[in-house]
Specification:
Elements (H helix, E strand, L loop, with lengths): L13 H8 L3 H9 L10 H14 L5 H8 L4 E6 L5 H13 L6 E6 L3 H6 L5 E4 L7 H8 L6 E4 L9 E5 L1 H13 L5 E6 L8 H12 L9 E4 L5 H10 L7 E4 L2 H13 L9 E5 L3 H6 L2 E4 L3 H13 L9 E4 L2 E3 L7
Parallel strand pairs: 1-2, 1-3, 3-4, 4-5, 5-11, 6-7, 6-8, 8-9, 9-10
Antiparallel strand pairs: 10-12
Helix pairs in contact: 1-2, 1-3, 5-13, 8-9, 10-11
Keywords: DNA-binding, Transcription, Transcription regulation
GO molecular function: DNA-binding transcription factor activity; transcription cis-regulatory region binding
Pfam family, one: LacI
Length: about 325
């Protein structure tokens, strides 16, 4: 017989969990929210007992009530341009893994209109990636009073009422191309479509770096792809089917590098013997697939810690800036 649950079934309270576990309400709260309170002392055995009691009673915290009581939502909001590419997927995975340990929930919005996405949400902190706005004043105006809780990942913006995480993408691109030039002269570029005449900053650096090495960019050696997950495979195939096939490919992002490696192997080419590939982002997927990439040391951990410090009110410092220094992670796609 199927048990019916009535819509007005009584909600399990924190006090009931505490009574089942044989602890105080305060201790149960500390354990289940992950809140680090000075003076709170409990053993791991106690923590396990509280979590088991919560699971047995099917306890779910009332976030709305907690928000009214504390002025906090317990939510970290991520605004991303797409979830399927390796870098944003790595960031999302890291947040969803770490946030619950601090009593926080991660909500993800896939939206190019960052301001609209944030306006629809309530959060203790928000992380915004792939922003199209390049002027800090525009951001400040668009965010309004939300700005103080927002962390923006941007190579262009300065902190201005909001926090900024900066990764020098031009230096990262230069390091990637120079790494390929150590062994190769025929270096092509997989580049995202860009409305500007000169293309993305990473593409500009590719051209500039080749010129400094005394090399011109052959016609067709820059293959553009639309910003979706499938088009880089088409662009990579165009490069690798050329009569003057490049011996190395600089991909502007890890997901394009992944496409290049996959396409090369599909065409019977050896990586890196026949074609070397490097990307940017140092995503988990690049690491797992053995793809060389330019990222930063402990990049994901440092991003998450920086955002969570704002969410947990561990800092009241305004206009924070976290600068991530590019580092090359050499793996099998460029080194045999």
């Amino acid at each position: 017989m199927t048990q019916q649950v009535k819509g007005n079934a009584k909600r399990v309270t924190l006090r009931e969990v505490a009574e089942r576990a044989g602890v105080s309400v305060a201790t149960a709260s500390y354990v289940l929210t992950g809140t680090d309170k000075s003076g709170a002392r409990y053993s791991e055995e106690t923590a396990v007992r509280v979590r088991e009691a919560a699971a047995e009673l099917q306890y779910h915290p009332n976030r709305m009530a907690r928000s009214v009581r504390t002025g906090r939502t317990g939510v970290v909001q991520l605004v991303l341009h797409m979830l399927g590419d390796p870098w944003t997927l790595s960031i999302a995975e890291e947040f969803t893994d770490q946030a619950p340990r601090h009593g926080l929930t991660t909500l993800i919005a896939l939206d190019s209109d960052f301001a609209a996405a944030l306006a629809r949400s309530e959060f203790d902190a928000a992380f915004v990636a792939a922003a199209g706005v390049t002027q800090s004043a525009q951001w400040r105006k668009a965010l309004g009073p939300l700005a103080r809780k927002v962390v923006v990942y941007s190579a262009e913006l300065e902190p201005d009422g909001f926090d900024v995480i900066r990764f020098d993408e031009r230096l990262a691109a230069q390091m990637a191309v120079e790494h390929l030039l150590e062994r190769h002269r025929a270096v092509a570029c997989l580049s995202a479509t860009d409305e500007s005449a000169s293309g993305s900053p990473r593409r500009q650096v590719y051209v500039e770096t080749l010129k400094r090495a005394g090399l011109d960019v052959p016609d067709g050696y820059i293959a553009e792809y639309e910003k979706d997950l499938l088009d880089p495979y088409r662009a990579a195939r165009l490069l690798l089917n050329r009569p003057d096939r490049p011996s190395a490919i600089f991909a502007e992002a890890d997901f394009a590098a992944f496409a290049a490696v996959h396409t090369a192997r599909e065409l019977g080419l050896r990586v890196p013997e026949d074609v070397a590939v490097i990307g940017i982002g140092d995503s988990r997927q690049a690491e797992r697939a053995g793809i060389s990439s330019v990222g930063a040391i402990d990049m994901r951990t440092r991003i998450i810690d920086f955002v969570l410090a704002r969410a947990l009110n561990e800092t009241t410092e305004p206009d924070r800036l976290l600068e991530l220094e590019p580092v090359i992670f050499v793996r099998g796609s460029t080194s045999s």
